[in-house]
Amino acid sequence: MQAENIRVWDMRGISSLTDFMVVCAGSSMPHLRAILRDVSGLVLEWHGQRPVNAEGKADTRWVVLDYIDVMVHVMHQEMREYYGLEELWANAKEISWQTETSSSPS
């Protein structure tokens, strides 16, 4: 999906909103739309789940896909730098992330 700067945090014990928080960035509106399409499509394909709620649109440069146990923030890089979510979640444990080389989960 070509998302940039993907980071994942374990939010258990830190937040009552979700167990895991994923943040990734895109560099343009078409890039953000492609990331959103791919995240939604792959989660549906791999796990049969659609987001329970989605806030924002690619045009707003920040979209949150809420899968209850996992929240995915897809942000334009400028918005990500401005809001500094990494600093907000400094107490959360970051989970190591590796990009899959295939199109299916291992």
Secondary structure blueprint with pairings:
Blueprint lengths: L3 E7 L9 E7 L2 H19 L5 E3 L6 E5 L3 E7 H7 L1 H4 L4 E3 L11
Parallel strand pairs: 2-5
Antiparallel strand pairs: 1-2, 1-6, 3-4, 4-5
Describe this structure in words.
The chain has helices at about 30-45, 75-85, 85-90, and strands spanning about 5-10, 20-25, 55, 60-65, 70-75, 95. With about 110 residues, the protein is α+β, with helices and mostly antiparallel strands. It has three helices and six strands. The chain has a six-stranded mixed sheet with strand order 3-4-5-2-1-6. The longest helix has 19 residues, at about 30-45. The chain has a single domain (about 5-90), classed as Beta Polymerase, domain 2 (2-Layer Sandwich). Strand 3 and strand 4 form a beta hairpin. The chain is about 30% helix and about 30% strand.
Précis, in short:
The protein has helices at 29-47, 77-83, 85-88, and strands at 4-10, 20-26, 53-55, 62-66, 70-76, 93-95.
